[in-house]
Amino acid sequence: MNRVLVTGGAGFLGSHLCDRLIMDGNDVICADNLYTGSKDNIRHLMSNPYFEFIRHDVTEPLYVEVDQIYNLACPASPVHYQNNPVKTTKTSVYGALNMLGLAKRVHARILQASTSEVYGDPEIHPQPESYRGCVNPIGIRACYDEGKRVAETLFFDYNRMHNLEIKVMRIFNTYGPRMNPNDGRVVSNFIVQALKGEDITIYGDGTQTRSFCYVDDLIEGMVRLMNSPADFHGPVNIGNPGEFTMVELANLVLELTGSKSKLVFQPLPQDDPLQRKPVIDLAHEKLGWEPHIQLREGLEKTIEYFKKVI
Ligand code: NAD
Ligand code: UDP
Ligand code: UDP
């Protein structure tokens, strides 16, 4: 049995990861300050003797004894990470430092939930791991993008200086049940708007693209990466290469919900990336991983979830 720490474990991805780790027979500590996460996401685990929740902010040191650390703590939705951008940078940078210090002390293996945002508004398409990105360091997305980039730097420097067993995962847009209805990201916004019969808010002209991965596929990739050979550190893209415009996404959500909501167009936020699609050859080669759930099927499952919660 491994003792595993999941930071951000009460969030969308973190709570699915906790489920998976408990199912696999691990002893799980979930550390979360509940900024965007919720006890509701982990309520069903609370009575399990192998699950423990700690209300903790990763910008503060943490002393626990574990074998593996998944570092997911960080708000992921632009609305929430831009609400207090200085705090977002602190969470990524101090959070990574503290978790790396912890990993060093207890000789734990540590995985960082990095992001496709390290590629910024990419000039090459699709994006392989070798691409170094195009990030505006002073824009409104920089607190998240640059914070995550520094976290990657810290991971690789702890590996070079202290031989830490690090894993860096670049996550592309992921969606599914347990996204907060007020999360603000596009999939949850469109579904909630469609189900409530409200206007579907498209930012810009809706021709920008994203590639959407269903949460179960993503968690499988994360666990495979953590348990991959010690000499493989990544960074590795995990995402679904299926690429859709926001108008295509909106129309699919309308079709699957049977909603009569109208599409309305609103200003495009500053530095909003025009296109995004992962090259996943490395994940396939090193982890034997590829996504299996395509957008239509994943949206159907997600819509079922939102019908229950709103
Ligand atoms: P989320 O907002 O649902 O989860 C983040 C969790 O971290 C929340 O439970 C929140 O309360 C917690 N948290 C935030 N700041 C904290 C702090 N200072 N101390 C302790 N806990 C803190 O988002 P998510 O989609 O589950 O994302 C999880 C991780 O994956 C994040 O690091 C995010 O950057 C990364 N990621 C997600 C996506 C995606 O599409 N879902 C894409 C790229 C990267
Ligand atoms: N740290 C932690 N838990 C531990 C060990 C360290 O939170 O079990 C924090 C510690 O407070 C420090 C950071 O991790 O701020 C980096 O630790 P490291 O030992 O690498 O560096 P140093 O303490 O020498 O700055
Ligand atoms: N978006 C949109 N309407 C919304 C929310 C988002 O058109 O209600 C757009 C947003 O401008 C971006 C894309 O959808 O181009 C994905 O946004 P999200 O916040 O989900 O993720 P990110 O931009 O971080 O990939």
Secondary structure topology:
Elements (H helix, E strand, L loop, with lengths): L2 E5 L4 H12 L3 E6 L18 E5 L12 E4 L6 H4 L3 H22 L2 E7 L26 H21 L3 E6 L2 E2 L10 H11 L3 E4 L5 E3 L1 E2 H12 L9 E3 L4 E3 H12 L5 E4 L14 H7 L7 H15 L1
Parallel strand pairs: 1-2, 1-4, 2-3, 4-5, 5-6, 6-11, 7-10, 8-13
Antiparallel strand pairs: 9-12
Bound molecules: nicotinamide-adenine-dinucleotide and uridine-5'-diphosphate (2 copies).
One uridine-5'-diphosphate binds next to helix 5 and strand 8.
Q: How many domain modules?
A: 1
Distance between the termini: 38 Å
What's the total count of β strands?
13
- Cofactors, ions, other ligands: nicotinamide-adenine-dinucleotide, uridine-5'-diphosphate
Mean pLDDT: 98
Number of helical stretches of at least 4 residues = 9
Content-based structural category: alpha/beta
- What percent of residues are in strands? 15-25%
Order of helices and strands: EHEEEHHEHEEHEEEHEEHEHH
Largest sheet: 7 strands, parallel
What is the gyration radius calculated from CA atoms? Answer: 19 Å
Across the major sheet, the strand order is 3-2-1-4-5-6-11
CATH class: Alpha Beta
CATH superfamily: NAD(P)-binding Rossmann-like Domain
Shape: globular
Q: In percent, how helical is the residue content?
A: 25-40%
The appropriate CATH architecture is 3-Layer(aba) Sandwich
Q: Give start-end ranges of low-pLDDT stretches.
A: none
The CATH topology is Rossmann fold
